[in-house]
Amino acid sequence: xxxxxxxxxxxxxxxxxxxxxxxxxxxxxxxxxxxxxxxxxxxxxxxxxxxxxxxxxxxxxxxxxxxxxxxxxxxxxxxxxxxxxxxxxxxxxxxxxxxxxxxxxxxxxxxxxxxxxxxxxxxxxxxxxxxxxxxxxxxxxxxxxxxxxxxxxxxxxxxxxxxxxxxxxxxxxxxxx
Length: 177
Fold this sequence. Notes:
Blueprint: H1 3-13, E1 18-21, H2 28-36, E2 42-45, H3 49-63, E3 67-71, H4 75-79, H5 81-90, E4 94-100, H6 122-126, E5 132-134, H7 142-154, E6 160-166, H8 167-170
């Protein structure tokens, strides 16, 4: 099982029946994993990324479950920040999942503007409007990251979380035993 499949399986086990998204190149493995489990979890494609985040927020408010949305990297992830901020301010459990360039293409803390195509440090941009914002750097730690994100979004004073999901981590196999 790869990390994208693991995340979909995790969401299904937590009772999430619907996710909202706007696909792009760097979130394709996650979208493929959703498609393979389409009988168990519905994927609703929205007109834009902002709509995805607000749809997930509305889903959470109505269903009592955590809302989930996905976008691609860079500007796609930024377009959803309004909905993520709304979840923060109104204490609504929302998980944002945005694709990103492979970890080998990430600039890190260098002084260059970007290294990979549409790479953006979305984690720094969302720290003030999320309970948890993280970019997994290895597949081995991914289950722990997902569990922590879910727990923080849904317990205590609820709020939004963001998993910035690098392409190579999405496709990396993990041992789930």
